[in-house]
Amino acid sequence: MQKKQISIRRAGADDARAVHEIVLGALREINARDYPASVIDRLASTLPEKVASNLDRWHAFVAIVDGRIVGTASLSGHTVRSVFVHPDYQRGGVATKLMGAVERAALAQSVRSLTVQSSITAQPFYTRRGFNIVREEFYGEERTIIMSKAISSAPD
After folding, report:
1. CA-to-CA distance for 56 and 60, rounded, in angstroms?
2. What is the reported pTM?
3. Separation between Cα atoms, residue 107 and residue 135, nearest integer Å
4. Is residue 47 part of a domain?
5. For 8, what's the count of Cα atoms within 13 Å in the CB-facing half-sphere?
6. What is the Cα 38 distance to its own chain's centre?
7. In a domain, 129, yes or no
């Protein structure tokens, strides 16, 4: 199978609907493997709208394959926010490309370390990207892993 070309661009208000759907789909299909239904239902009721409504405020990006938005990631100060990839495009390099854009944006803003509130689901991805666990937090049944990474050069 031929690898799909992934392009990354800044996100804008016009991307809100597509981003909302990606976040919702990833929560319900991917994160649901690691969290109880009560956690997924709570997150699904607020998180997709929160991400979509902050595209203009955060330094947000979208990933595009064949003209379709398939992923999103954002930077707010030194915090990585809302890295989500459509379930059909998982493990295809989309999140890696998005994180590259986030890290380049951080460096351009003279940010030298990043933090992320990782889900259980995403922890292996962030670990592969050089993030280390700082601590864990619990919001009821929701386990969140706080991770950090020093950055000093632009990723590939």
Report:
1. 7
2. 0.88
3. 24
4. yes
5. 21
6. 21
7. no
Query: What is the rounded distance in angstroms from the CA atom of residue 1 to the CA atom of residue 79?
Result: 35
CATH number of the domain at 26, please: 3.40.630.30
pLDDT value at position 1? 37
Q: In what order do the strands lie in the sheet with 7-10?
A: 7-10, 59-65, 68-76, 79-85, 113-118, 142-150, 132-139
**103 domain residue, yes or no:** yes
Low-confidence ranges of the chain (pLDDT < 70): 1-3, 154-156
- 95 lies in which domain range? 7-111
pLDDT digits (tens, 9 = 90+) for 16-46: 999 999 999 998 998 888 888 988 898 888 8
Distance separating alpha carbons of residues 110 and 107, to the nearest angstrom = 5
Residue 65 lies in a domain: yes
Query: Residue 98: what are its φ and ψ, rounded to 5°?
Result: -60, -45
Number of domains in the chain: 1
